[in-house]
Specification:
mainly alpha; 5 helices; 0% strand
Length: 97
């Protein structure tokens, strides 16, 4: 079960980072998803380290993020994947989109 959750979070992080990179290419002052980009980048760093069989201790840093931050990452990624508007902070807290 944890592997599924990790895979789901990994995919969400990759979508968010890819979208952010495309937005920055078009508009260097663009901001994405209420500051959740740091979490997405950490997840991507862990993916890259695992693929290269490097021992990088990012898991502890990832544990420092709250359930709300993970929910924000997932909701933002889902919205981007479905071409929907990025949810507001209130929608993330309420769990609505």
């Amino acid at each position: 079960m944890l592997d599924f959750i990790d895979d789901f979070r990994n995919t969400a992080a990759l979508v968010l980072v890819k979208h952010h990179a495309m937005q920055i290419a078009q508009n260097p002052t663009a901001v994405v998803c209420h500051g959740i980009l740091e979490l997405a980048i950490l997840v991507c760093e862990r993916i890259a380290a695992n693929l290269q069989h490097e021992h990088v201790d990012l898991d502890q840093r990832l544990k420092e993020f709250s359930a709300l931050q993970w929910r924000t990452l997932l909701m933002c990624s889902s919205a981007l994947a479905c071409n929907q508007p990025i949810p507001t902070a209130e929608q993330v807290v309420d769990g609505m989109m």
